[in-house]
Amino acid sequence: MRDSLWLYPAAETIHLLGLATLVGSAVAFDLRLLGVSSQLPARATARYLLTCARTGFGVAALSGFLLFTADATALADNPAFRWKLALIAIAGLNALRFHVGPFRAAADWDRGRPTPVAARIAAGVSLAVWIGAVAAGRLIAYI
């Protein structure tokens, strides 16, 4: 893939678009949980934004796999790449914990009750790990 004039840059562009969709949607939902635009219903916001985030994740994961296959040995040895994967795994575990925990009571938040502390903590963790994953991904080229 690296030998192609257009294939690697195309995969990289698709990867960045997927990442922007994923991280942008996750950040918007996290901000909702932290109180920004709290007048928006949490469940409806989640239904829209988390669908976008899942789609972005699928696109980023598939294109990321293609990019990985172009230079697997070097990437596997790159500490920034390993950090990126670890942070993505943490983000996934955090999302799972959020969905089986505080999000089950999201209907209450739609009725004007404040977002519970556990959900706000999950949102803060999500913001931190996605920022870290993006930064680690960017550092791959320099380490």
Concise structural overview:
The protein is mainly α and 143 residues long. It has helices at residues 7-33, 42-70, 72-77, 79-100, 106-109, 117-139. Helix 1 runs antiparallel to helix 2 (42-70), helix 1 (7-33) packs antiparallel against helix 6 (117-139) and helix 4 runs antiparallel to helix 6.
Entry keywords:
143 residues, mainly alpha, 6 helices, 78% helix
Explain the layout of strands and helices:
Elements: H1 7-33, H2 42-70, H3 72-77, H4 79-100, H5 106-109, H6 117-139
Please characterize this protein's 3D structure.
This protein is mainly alpha-helical. It has one domain (7-142). The protein has six helices and no strands. It has helices spanning 7-33, 42-70, 72-77, 79-100, 106-109, 117-139. The chain is elongated, with a radius of gyration of 17 Å.
